Recover the amino acids of this structure.
């Protein structure tokens, strides 16, 4: 089979000045994509800004013969998102690929978290994915082609102590993916979500050093490149990935039990008495949209 190439494709990678985003930008450019290297260049907690993070990656790409342009806007505002997409259009004429990757942390236990710490984390991860994807989606829709990646986290999918803001934002991008995948389907716009585990400044103080060494961000890159390639026909999927481990994770709906008829009042004791069946995941299956979930009402719909 032919190698996967990105000749003629234009990609935006947010937060591409470091960590995971840098590896995506380098790998896409090495395979022929023209890349907008977006990075605000701030600290791990989102404070400050600098042009050097994006500039260094652009230089690295150019030295290797690739094509790239820097953008320093924050993903967290509508103006920033529009300007990031404008950078792609002004320099390369279109946008085919968006990798929503920019991220920060403001960890604190739930009782201690402040409104500012909540807002800034939601703004970068969740609003940021909206701000960049919406103007890009308009162009992708016109062109009948698009590949979008949202970046979730095991913390959001499965929970983590001290990250209520981050967990909420990361599950939020799954909801956004569900919508973009459904609305993009007829325009060949595919949207998927990854939950990576990788060595970066976000994880350097929370991972044991031996494990940290094995979790190079480059091990996440091939999955992301495949998902944003023309070969990929999957959409609305969530993938775990780390150190060469790739797996799919999914929100499933179980049939549970229908004990009502849409008329009879159901006493709370019937909930208690049927608890094992209500919480059972037996025969749980994937649901493609909310309308499909109504099918579980079965005879009650008659
Ligand atoms: P990183 O800190 O190395 O890279 C994130 C980049 O985003 C930085 O260069 C930063 O300057 C940039 N950025 C931050 N706020 C921005 C803004 N408002 N606008 C534009 N750029 C901004 O972190 P890493 O680990 O590479 O993270 C990348 C993504 O992967 C993040 O969304 C993170 O939450 C997610 N993730 C990472 C995991 C890991 O194990 N490293 C685990 C799960 C998720």
């Amino acid at each position: 089979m032919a190698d996967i190439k990105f000749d003629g494709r234009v990609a935006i990678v947010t937060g591409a000045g470091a960590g995971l985003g840098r590896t995506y930008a380098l790998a896409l450019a090495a395979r022929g994509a023209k890349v907008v290297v977006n990075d605000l260049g701030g600290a791990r907690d989102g404070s400050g800004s600098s042009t050097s993070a994006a500039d260094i990656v652009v230089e690295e790409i150019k030295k290797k013969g690739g094509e790239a342009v820097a953008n320093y806007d924050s993903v967290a505002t509508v103006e920033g998102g529009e300007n990031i997409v404008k950078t792609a259009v002004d320099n390369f004429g279109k946008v085919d690929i968006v990798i929503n990757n920019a991220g920060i942390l403001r960890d604190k236990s739930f009782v201690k978290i402040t409104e500012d710490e909540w807002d800034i984390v939601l703004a970068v991860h969740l609003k940021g994915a909206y701000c960049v994807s919406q103007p890009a989606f308009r162009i992708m829709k016109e062109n009948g082609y698009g590949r979008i990646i949202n970046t979730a986290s095991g913390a959001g999918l499965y929970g983590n102590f001290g990250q209520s803001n981050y967990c909420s934002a990361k599950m939020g991008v799954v909801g956004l993916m569900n919508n973009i995948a459904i609305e993009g389907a007829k325009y060949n716009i595919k949207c998927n979500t990854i939950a990576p585990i990788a060595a970066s400044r976000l994880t350097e103080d929370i991972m044991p050093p031996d494990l940290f060494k094995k979790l190079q961000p480059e091990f996440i890159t091939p999955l992301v490149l495949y998902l944003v390639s023309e070969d990929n026909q999957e959409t609305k999927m969530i993938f775990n990935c780390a150190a060469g481990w790739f797996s799919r994770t999914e929100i499933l709906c179980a049939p549970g039990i229908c004990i009502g008829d849409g008329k009879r009042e159901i006493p709370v004791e019937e909930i208690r008495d049927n608890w094992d069946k209500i919480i059972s995941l037996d025969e749980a299956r994937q649901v493609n949209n909310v309308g499909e979930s109504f099918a579980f009402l079965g005879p009650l719909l008659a």
Q: What stands out?
A: The chain has two domains: 10-249, 252-301. Residues 14-15, 17-21, 38-42, 44, 46, 53, 74-76, 101-104, 124, 128, 151, 153, 196-198, 200-203 surround NAI (CB under 6 Å). The two ends are 50 Å apart (CA to CA).
